[in-house]
Amino acid sequence: MAKPLDNRAWFLVLPVVALVAFSALIPVMTVVNYSVQDSFGNNEFFWNGTGWFKELLDPSTDLGGRFFDALWRTLLFSGLCLLIEVPLGIGVALTLPRRGWGVAASLVLLALPLLIPWNVVGTIWQVFARRDIGLLGAAVNGLGIEYNYAQTPLAAWVAVVAMDVWHWTSLVVLLCYAGLRAIPDAYYQAAKVDGASSWAVFRAIQLPKMQRVLTIAILLRFMDSFMIYTEPFVVTGGGPGNATTFLSIDLVKIALGQFDLGKAAAMSIVYNLIVLTVCWVFFATTTRSQSEAVQ
Amino acid sequence: MARIAFERLAHGYPGSSAYALKPMDMVWEDAGAYALLGPSGCGKTTLLNIVSGLLRPREGRVLFDGQDVTALSTERRNVAQVFQFPVVYDTMTVRENLTFPLRNRGVPAAAARARVEHVAGLLGLSAMLDRRARNLGADDKQKISLGRGLVRDDVAAILFDEPLTVIDPHLKWELRSRLKELHRQVPVTMIYVTHDQTEALTFADRVVVMSEGEVVQVGTPEALFDRPAHSFVGHFIGSPGMNFLPCAVEGDTAILPGGYRVGLPRPYGRLAGRVELGIRPEFAAIARDGLPVTVRRVEDLGRRRIARVELDGVPFAATLPEGMAVPAEPRLALDPRRLHVYADGRLAEGEG
Hints:
The complex is a heterodimer. By secondary structure, chain A is mainly α. Chain A has one domain: MetI-like fold. Chain A contains twelve helices and two strands. In chain A, strands 1-2 form a two-stranded antiparallel ribbon. In chain A, helix 9 (198-226) runs antiparallel to helix 12. Chain B is an alpha+beta fold. In chain B, strand 4 (59-64) and strand 5 (67-68) form a beta hairpin. Chain B contains nine helices and 22 strands. In chain B, helix 3 packs across helix 4. Chain B folds into two domains: 4-236, P-loop containing nucleotide triphosphate hydrolases (Rossmann fold), CATH 3.40.50.300; 244-347, CATH 2.40.50.140. In chain B, the strands form six sheets. A six-stranded mixed sheet of chain B has the order 6-7-8-3-9-10, sandwiched between helices. Chain B has a four-stranded antiparallel sheet with strand order 2-1-4-5, covered by helices on one side. In chain B, strands 11-14-21-22 form a four-stranded antiparallel sheet. Classes of the chains: A mainly alpha, B alpha+beta. Chains A and B meet through helix 8 and helix 9 of A and strand 6, helix 3 and helix 5 of B.
């Protein structure tokens, strides 16, 4: 059977093409355009080729050093968030009630932090952790532990990581809980019959059955924490010094603080490529492990 | 291995005063093959879960070899259970699955290994011991579930909760005969819950027929067929089920609708309640002499033919003998030795 061929069909996809062009293609191309130029204000631009990229990827330069520092900081932040949020989320999901009124109550409570806008979360913690009027900050200081997130880098890190854990562990909990609820009762009964300890039940049943949702949870949490901006910006503004200046914060500093559009554009392209690469690696490994499982 | 006894056992689910399982006493002999047969919701799974300890009965006691286990947890009862949907531990190989119950109980690795290989041999799983369990078919997964019970040589009983529900029809037969074979090789008490009479009758030495939370009859497949203790058993076992005709009984004569009189094999005393005459279609044949009936239709079941007839307006199933065409004036001949009288659904014992 001959396929009907009519090039007028292209007109049907035009609206989508236009929409994508305005929402993604044109902005991205603008950034690409900036990344190969230098500007000194007055809307004057000069060709710079791959200069910014070379500088960015060479840690011995000013820009490169700054970029890699921010990159390691961001990776450390993401790593810490995952290390705390994933086990904590699994643990909380395991202790949630399986039936009764407690289910709805705990789900609503858990969903609350997820519903709060980022900058509000930042403001809450900015106040909450303050040593003079903040409940947490004052309490910690009251215990005799010197805590001031505006002065010591460690205290600032504790504040931003604690904030992220507070804000996003619920997401891991909810995903894990969904995974746990999907396990038929027969599995637990069989494990009882087999004399399995609760640790054996976790290893043999719960963890494998949560694998898919955990994959999604880890991917989401990595991406979100790797691109975090608003909350630390509100709490610490990247400080003290540059202690909590993550990639996104540094990017905004370069682009809007110093108005170095070329450097910022090059940096955002590299940043974007890192995110894409991680996504792709993650996606490829999980789909492969799943297709192996099906065979 | 154990002899399982129930003493005044009864159960009801929380929030309801009704019995899901009415009070009963029963003994299941050691190494017997029992089937719990009944329609959905008759309480057979409830009874099974009470045996395995997943459910604690509201009243009464469960004894294993004379020892009260009512309060014991599933782990400490030493029973194995095969569920309706195959349960395997996905991330493990077949071997790891079979070793799991032994490892949990601290059996030394060498002993466990030998035991697992022995059981895998019995079940025909030897060739796939090192494959991932999750990639196997439902029938192999059910064998693994069963194997996890068999590897424990101290197991008191193996319980099956409708284990063939999700198995393809052609594999059902194979698995069923393997189960029977296995029971001959491994003398362990096996209890098989099903709503399928073929499964129950082929598997079990003794069938426990349940209806609405009550055990209505316990007996060999032959006994259930020949002398159903309850009209429910008559209906439920056999295909088509037993015929029941409302009647009145005077001594050794039954008076059927339309005033027809039928001689009974034994005399009966006064019967209270609703009295019915029961006979299986296998023992009621279309003939040239007997009770006049109207033939509604004939079903050809391959090996035999069933005539759906009406006796004075009461529907009745009878056998149409081989080679016989439906006569112009069809009559019904009943085998007098196979007639049973039921009062309010229960088999009435004759006198003498």
